[in-house]
Every structure is written in structure tokens, then in C-alpha cells.
Amino acid sequence: RKVIFSGIQPTGVPHLGNYLGALREWFRLQQNAGADDALIFSLVDQHAITVHQDPKQLRQWKKESLAILLAIGLDPKRCILFHQSDVPAHVEMMWILSRQASTGYLGRMTQWKDKTTNLIRGNSTSADTPKPGLSLFAYPVLQAADVLVHGATHVPVGEDQVQHLEFSRELATSFNHSYGKGILTPPTTLISPAKRVMSLVNPNAKMSKSAVNPKSRILLTDSTEAIGMKLKSALTDSVEGVTYDPAVRPGVSNLVDAILYTSDGEYGSQEDVVRDLQGASMRALKEKAAESVERAIGPVREQYFEFIADERMLREIATDGAERAKQNAGVVLKRAQRAIGFDW
Ligand code: TYM
User: Fold this and answer.
1) Do residues 15 and 133 both lie within one domain?
2) For residue 54, how far is its CA from the centre of ligand 1 (angstroms)?
3) Is-contact 17 217, C-beta < 8 A?
4) What's the CA gap between 116 and 132, in Å, rounded?
5) Taking Cα atoms as reference points, which of 227, 304, 225, 234 lies closest to residue 262?
6) Keyword ATP-binding: yes or no (predicted)?
7) The CATH number of the domain where 300 resides is what?
8) 168 and 88, same structural domain?
9) What pTM was computed for the model?
């Protein structure tokens, strides 16, 4: 039996990278899941507050992110969809695991190093607090708690989460070594084919919710015109023709990838896309990318506007999801608590 778990931060409307790198894979897993498999997807608001968030904004994002999960086709009857802070077991498990978490290892995490360099240099991208706090440092321990407390066997993510999941596996193994075999399950990471969608303005950086320039990302709620406009202004280069070479032509290669991964099987590989666009101008490449992206995410946008208008339904789904998530997380949490001697 598979237990599929993954999470996304409710820190804005998800973008094309979130969709191709994660959300669409969640949907595919749902469509291919066996009757016994569990599908658990969390809006990780506890992770979101490891940097400063405006409370009003956070409330809005929690709602919008849930509407997006429904809009991409996740079925609340089939999946457990919930906000992380509604299920205290995550934080309780995190504290238990913290004993196992080496501060040296945490300090070497790429995301910690990136974020703290930005915070310290003052390149902070949102209303971040000027100095990184304890929770940002402990972020990967909470992420490990997320997957371990639900007994996840498989975790679908983009490439940037691979290191965090390796850390989760090591925590599980180390906990089991101290307290007993089989208490925690080291999960398998599932990396999507579109594992790293790059920024449209700086194709050497990944597309991200927190980058300053909104033209760097395509949001799942962007209109057809906005998608066209952002892709039209995407940074490419002055080499003639379309080729695929991410190291030398990151901008062009990112657009080739975008076409491939939104083509719905029309193309089997980057080479297929390049062959089709041989000799095409940058403008034609961008137009083709805009069409392809619109075809893939247009239907998500339409659905989103229906779901976001129905607040009552969103609340019901969140309440029901939280209840089911509590039940599921309770099993492993109890087991871990007993193993460490809390059951006197
Ligand atoms: P987050 O919210 O940054 O991103 C959500 C998912 O989107 C993927 N992703 C991308 N994939 C390809 N290209 C990109 N440019 C891109 N940007 C984001 C991410 O890899 C992720 O799968 N720490 C996690 C949230 C989390 C989590 C978990 C994930 C918390 N607990 C437990 C899995 C399991 C995060 O910040 O994702």
C-alpha cells in the first residue's frame, strides 16, 4: 500500500514551476492510485511562517491555495487536503525528531544557505524579517515530521526538495536505530520529469514565488494575455535558431522544456521540440510556448475562479481534511511517543 504525501507553501498563487514540478504529478498519482493507496496533500502554513508573513495576506493565500488544489483536479473525497496548522501532530513530531537532527547538517542545507545569504545581504525578496530565525533553520525538521508522521512511502516533489527528503530519510533511520525498527518509514522521493522550471527573467535561477519581479513567473491564475506578455518578454539570447543546451542557452532551453512539458504527449523529448522549431525565430518560439502553456493551464484557471467563489465549500473541505489528517497522523505519532517513553 502506498501512502503518498506532499506539501506546498501557501505563500501566493502557485506558478508554472509548482504545477509542472509537483501539482500535476499529484493529480497524476491520484488518477493512477490503487483503491488502498492514501493521498495526502498539505498546505504547509507552518513552513510559510518561517519568514515574516502579513496575517491578512496569509489568510487569503491559504484560501487561494486550497482552491488551486481543487482546480488542478484533486478530489477531496479521494485525497486528504488540509492546512498543516490544523494538525498539531506535525509540530509535535518535529520536536521529537529534533533530537536526531544534527545542527551541522542543517547548516549545510542549500535552502538555508541561500535564504540566509539573501536575508543578510539585504536582498530579501518579501517582507522578510531582517535576520533569519530559529524556525527557518529548523525548517527541514518540520518537513521531515510532515512526511514521517503520516507514514508516507512516496513523496512527489520538484528537484529543489530532494535534499530535504534525503534528510527526512536519515532522521527516520536514525530514530529507528535509537528506538526500534520499523517505527518510522524512510520515504521514497518521486521527482517529476519537469523537475526544475527556470525563471523567465533570470533563467539561471528557478522560477519562484518569492522572486521580486512578477514577470519571472507564470501564475496558474494568469490570463491568456498575461501568459503571452510574460513569455514575450522572457530572456533568451541572440543566437539564431532553436537548440537545446541548458548550460549555454538557459533561456531558450527553458522555453523548449516548457513546450515539451505542457505539450500533453505531442512531443516525446526536447529533441522533438527542437526539430519542430528548427530555424524558428525567438518570437516564434515564445509564441509557441505561450500557446502550449495556455493550453495546459487555461482549464486550471477556469476551475479556480469557480472554487474560489465558494468559500463555504472550501471551509467544509478544509475541516473534513483536517479531521482525516489528524486521524492518520495520530497513528505514527502515538507509536513514536510510546517508543520514547511518553506512555508511563
Ligand atoms: P514549495 O511551496 O516551494 O513548492 C511546492 C512544490 O513545487 C516544486 N517547485 C518546483 N518544481 C519545479 N520547478 C520549480 N521552479 C519549482 N518551484 C517549486 C517544489 O519542489 C515542491 O514540490 N518545503 C516544501 C514544502 C513542503 C513539503 C513537505 C514538500 C513542506 N513539507 C513535505 C514535500 C513533503 C516547499 O517549500 O515547497
Assistant:
1) yes
2) 21
3) yes
4) 6
5) 227
6) yes
7) 1.10.240.10
8) yes
9) 0.96
Which residue segment(s) compose the domain that 45 sits in? Answer: 3-197+311-340
Residues 246 and 155 placed together within one structural domain of the fold? no
Pairing of the two strands 80-83 and 38-43: parallel
Nearest in space to 86 (alpha carbons), one of 55, 52, 42, 48: 42
Top mutation candidate among 160, 163, 254 for ligand 1, by most atoms within 8 Å of CB? 160
What is the predicted ipTM?
Answer: 0.99
**Do both 153 and 59 map to the same domain?**
yes
Q: How far apart are CA 89 and CA 115, in angstroms?
A: 27
Distance CA 48, CA 208 (A): 14
Q: Rounded to the nearest whole angstrom, what is the distance from the C-alpha of residue 18 to the centroid of ligand 1?
A: 7
Read off φ and ψ for residue 217, nearest 5 degrees. Answer: -135, 150
Give the separation between CA 77 and CA 299, rounded to whole angstroms: 21
Q: Is 209 within the bounds of a domain?
A: no
Using the mean position of ligand 1's atoms as its centre, give its distance from the Cα of residue 211 in Å.
15
Both 98 and 236 in a single domain?
no
Q: Of 147, 183, 151, 152, whose CA–CA distance to 168 is shortest?
A: 147
| Tens digits of residue pLDDT in 37-81 | 999 999 999 999 999 999 999 999 999 999 999 999 999 999 999
Domain total in the chain: 2
Residues 182-234 have pLDDT tens digits of: 999 999 999 999 999 999 999 999 999 999 999 999 999 999 999 999 999 99
Domain of 127: which CATH number? 3.40.50.620
Residues enclosing ligand 1, CB less than 6 A? Answer: 6-9, 17-18, 21-22, 44, 47, 143, 146-147, 155, 157-158, 160-161, 164, 195-197, 206-207
Catalytic residue annotation: 115, 206, 209
14: which 3 cell numbers?
502557485
- Domain contains 111: yes
CA of 234 to the centre of ligand 1 (A): 23
- For 217, the grid coordinates are 513567473
Backbone Cα Rg of the chain? 21
